Amino acid sequence: MENKNTNTSKNKSSRFGIGVFLLCIAVLWFVSFKLFKGGIGGEFLNNNESENTYISESEEIFSSNEDYPVAIVFDNHPDSQLYFMGISEAAVVYEWLAEGGATRFMGIYSGAPSAEKIGPVRSARPYLVEIASGWSAFFWHAGGSPESLDLIKTRTTDVIDLNEISGLGPIYFWRDNDVPRPHNLFTSGELIALGIKDFELDELPYEKLIWQWQNDSRGAPLRVYERAKSATSVYVDFSEGLGFDASYEYDPDAEIYKRFMGGIEHKDHATGAQLTASNIIIQRVPWEGYYPSGLGRIKLDLTGEGEMILFQKGKIMQGTWKKETRDDQTQWLDENGQPIILAKGQTWIEILPGTRVVSFE
Predict the structure, then answer these.
(1) How far apart are CA 120 and CA 185, in angstroms?
(2) Which end of the chain is less packed: N or C, by CB atoms within 10 Å?
(3) Could you count the other beta carbons within 10 Å of the beta carbon of residue 6?
(4) Is 233 exposed, middle or buried (0-12, 13-18, 19+ CB in 10 A)?
(5) Where is the domain boundary, 190, 207, 224?
(6) Residue range 41-78, pLDDT digits in tens
(7) Strand pairing report for 138-141 and 185-186
(8) What's the CATH code of the domain at 249?
């Protein structure tokens, strides 16, 4: 009997210990859930801002198979600017220095936009292929430099290529005869949706969708450093003249930067509205000279790492960019080496070679 009582006591003690252990686990889980708001897979703010949760772009902007990343190259020649349409729907816009001191753009879309006219569409460059490869993007363009076309033909990048100068061109593009050539090539949201279907792009490249976006409909403040300076006016000096220089003016009520080009409101003529940016990223890259194919085609190296400047919510933050290989997605890191959090809205990335000046106040 004594032995039975002892065993019973031990069993009860064991059950009690297990119960306490499970209770502790439950309490820890509950506390963790309250602290981090259940934001599984996201990133949380440091310091005193842990009440704001964030999720990655792949979970929010690129959330379904219909949201496959689409990259479109846009013209920016003076003769094309009155016909500039459809870029306001892009999630991200890249601007870079092209030939003759001009700039061009590439928009990254989450699937097919709604615009009925998108363009003018222009040609590829090697660094655009590298950017598109970082997204595993569906890459829409009209021809390109020999170096970019050779890179695509090697099939060693992660781009899905759609070149207008091919047998597929008439299916997904058209030329507007009321617009002067070569600035008259356009596509549409409907044709992009058709392309996504025809190319069977039914699985998102989740490993590439690593950027972080604000996940707070209340507009809670993003990570702001104590040392962050105000930056309500930004000027990007691309070339000797003024025509292609970009500038931004901050609207504190809307928490966006209004974009200007050459001192004039930069508009999407599909809507007539001025373009805006919630985030402006300056990506400084080395000056690499020119490609062997000539015609003043600038060579840019976007692999490696360098200085990054972020303008957001009327503030400026310093950091670095990093792209380990040609096919990797570019990472944007703050001064502590942590991924930056992007405010909701359109992001403009200004790729600035050499010692060109960015000024702000």
Answers:
(1) 5
(2) N
(3) 10
(4) middle
(5) 207
(6) 222 223 333 334 455 555 578 888 889 999 999 999 99
(7) unpaired
(8) 3.50.90.10
